[in-house]
Amino acid sequence: MIQVDRLAELQHGQDADFFAQLFQKDRRLTRQGRPFYLLEFRDRTRNIAATIWEGSPHEVACRDQWTVGHFYKIRGTFQETIHGGKVEIKRLRPVEQSDHESGFDPATCQPSSEADTQELFDYLLDLVDQEIATPELHSLVTAIFENHRQRIEALPGALHHHHAYAGGFLEHVYSVTQNVLYLLNTYRGQHPSLRDPITRQLTIAGAMLHDIGKLLELDEEVANTAYTSPGELIGHLILGRDLVRDTARELGIDLNADWLLRLEHLVVSHQGTAANGSPKPPMTWEANLIYWADELDGNIFRLAKACQQQDDGDPFVPKSNPFGRRVYRGDLPSQSENPS
C-alpha cells in the first residue's frame, strides 16, 4: 500500500500522496493574456495553491471535472514559497470508498470548530426556553433552529472572513448571544427602555437569527465552499428576513405583528451601513445591540488571527491585516508552553 501523507505535515520539496478538499477554482489570465486556473486545496489546518496552465495535461479535467467542495487524492511535489504553500500536481483523482482504509476522513480535510456544536445548539435552545416568554416569538426561533439543526451545526460562519470553518456559524452565534446578554444585563439599570421585556426577548432572538440567511447563502452541494445563486444575487440579510417571514407564515403568526417587524428589521440592519451591505441602519435598541455585538465578535476573531500570522518572532504584526495597522502582540508563548 502506498503511503499517504497529511497535507499539514508536508515539507518543502517533498513528493507525496495526500488527501485534500478543492476549496477554490478560478480561471485567470496573465498580463500577457495566457489563461490558467488558480486552485486552492486544503485540509483541516493548511491551505495550498496549485496552478494549471493552458495546454497542461490536466487542463481539460481541471475545467470539466475538478469540482469545488469535493475531496481528492493528489500526488505531487510540495513547495514553500514567499506566497505560501504550493503543490505541483502530477496526478489527481476523486477519493474512493477504498481510500478510507488509507486514512481518508472528510473531517480532516476541512477546518472545523474546536467547540462541541451539539452542546452550543442545545444551550441556545435552552436559553430560548428561559428568556423568550412571548409564545409566538418562542415558537418562531425554536422552529427555525430545530428545522435546520443538522445544517446549523455544520455551517461555517463565512467563506473567507471570520469563523470560516465547519461549525463556525454556531460558534459565532453563541458568542454574539453572550455579548448581548452582557450588554442587556449591564445597561438595563441605566436605561428604562432596556427593561422592556420584548426588547430583551427580541435582542436574544436576533442574536440567534441575525445570520440565519447563511443557510441559503452558502451552497451545501459543494460543502459550503461557494455561494448559491440567491446568495450571490440577494445575500444573507434579505434571505434571512425571508426565512424568518416564511416560517412565521407557516406557523400562522400575524405577519403585521410589531415584534415581527422589529425582528425583520434587526436581521436586515445588523451589518450597520449600506457600505457594509445593510439596506437600513439599525434603528431600534435591539438592532443596535445586535450590530455592536456582531462587530465585536468579528473583530476579536480577526485580531486573534492577525496576531497568529507570520509567527517569525517579530512582536509586531505587519499592516497587511484586516485593520490596516501594525498590531503589537508581544512575545508569543512557545507551543510547548501550557497556559494556566
From TrEMBL:
Keywords: Hydrolase
Cross-referenced CDD domains: HDc (cd00077)
SMART domains: HDc (SM00471)
Start and end residues of each stretch annotated as Disordered: 311-340
Classification via InterPro entries: HD/PDEase_dom, HD_domain, YhaM_exoribonuc/phosphodiest
Residues covered by the HD/PDEase domain: 165-308
Protein known as: 3'-5' exoribonuclease YhaM
Organism encoding this protein: Bremerella volcania
